[in-house]
Design brief:
heterodimer, A: mainly alpha, Non-ribosomal Peptide Synthetase Peptidyl Carrier Protein, Chain A, about 0% strand, B: mainly alpha, 3 helices
C-alpha cells in the first residue's frame, strides 16, 4: 500500500513542480501585486481632495476653493502651520499611515502630499 | 536659568500633532471635541509667545498634559458610547 503511494508521489510532485515553475509570469505578477502600493495616484488625489473639502472646521470657505495638485496649503488655502498639521493628521487617518515629522515639514502642496502617499507602500 | 533653549518649531508642531492624534482617539464625542478645541485654543493662544523661559515652561506643561491625554484616550477606548444626535452616522470608522 505504501509502495503504491511512493510510486505515484514522484509523478504528482513533478507535475506540481511543473505547474508552479512552468508559469513564472504568474508568480511575478502576484509578487508585484503584493509589493506595490495598492492605490492608484488618481484615487489618492481624489481622496486627498475629499479630505481637504471636509476639513472646514478651521477655515469655513475651504470647500468652495478650487483644488489642484499645485494648490499650496499656506498660500492658496490660507492654512497656517497648525492647520496644516491638523489637515495632515486627517489625511494620515484616511490612508492609515503615519507621515514622519521630517517629511511632513516639507509637504507644502497637494501634489507633494499625493506623491508621498502614492509612494508609500503602507497606504490603503 | 542658564542654558535654557526654547523648543524648536518642529518640536512644537510635532507636539501639536500628537495632541490632535490622541484627542481624535476618544470614543466619546464630548471628550473628543473638548480636547480638540482645547488643544487648538491653547496652541493658538501662545502662537506669538517669544520669551524662551515661558516657552520652555509651556512645553514642559504640555508634555505632562499629553501624558494624561494619552492615558485617558486609551481608557476611553475601553468603553463604548452611544452616538449623539449631533454625530454623523458615517465618516468615522469607530
Amino acid at each position: 500500500m505504501f509502495r503504491s503511494v511512493c510510486r505515484i508521489s514522484p509523478r504528482i510532485a513533478s507535475s506540481a513542480y511543473r505547474a508552479i515553475m512552468g508559469r513564472p509570469v504568474v508568480a511575478k505578477t502576484l509578487a508585484q501585486r503584493f509589493y506595490s502600493a495598492n492605490v492608484s495616484k488618481d484615487q489618492v488625489s481624489q481622496r486627498v481632495v475629499d479630505v481637504i473639502k471636509a476639513f472646514d472646521k478651521n477655515s469655513p470657505n475651504i470647500a468652495n476653493k478650487q483644488i489642484s495638485s499645485d494648490t499650496q496649503f499656506h498660500k492658496d488655502l490660507g492654512l497656517d502651520s497648525l492647520d496644516t498639521v491638523e489637515l495632515l493628521v486627517a489625511i494620515e487617518e484616511e490612508f492609515d499611515i503615519e507621515i514622519p515629522d521630517k517629511v511632513a515639514d516639507d509637504l507644502r502642496s497637494v501634489g507633494e502630499t499625493v506623491d508621498y502617499i502614492a509612494s508609500n507602500p503602507d497606504a490603503n | 536659568m542658564p542654558g535654557v533653549t526654547a523648543p524648536t518649531r518642529r518640536q512644537v508642531l510635532s507636539l501639536y500633532k500628537q495632541f490632535i492624534r490622541n484627542s481624535n482617539q476618544f470614543n466619546n464625542y464630548n471628550f473628543r471635541e473638548y480636547f480638540l478645541s482645547k488643544t487648538r485654543n491653547t496652541f493658538r493662544e501662545n502662537m506669538n509667545q517669544e520669551d524662551p523661559k515661558v516657552l520652555v515652561n509651556l512645553f514642559k506643561e504640555a508634555k505632562n498634559e499629553l501624558g494624561v491625554l494619552k492615558r485617558q484616550s486609551v481608557i476611553s477606548q475601553m468603553y463604548t458610547f452611544d452616538r449623539l444626535v449631533v454625530e454623523p452616522l458615517q465618516g468615522r470608522r469607530n
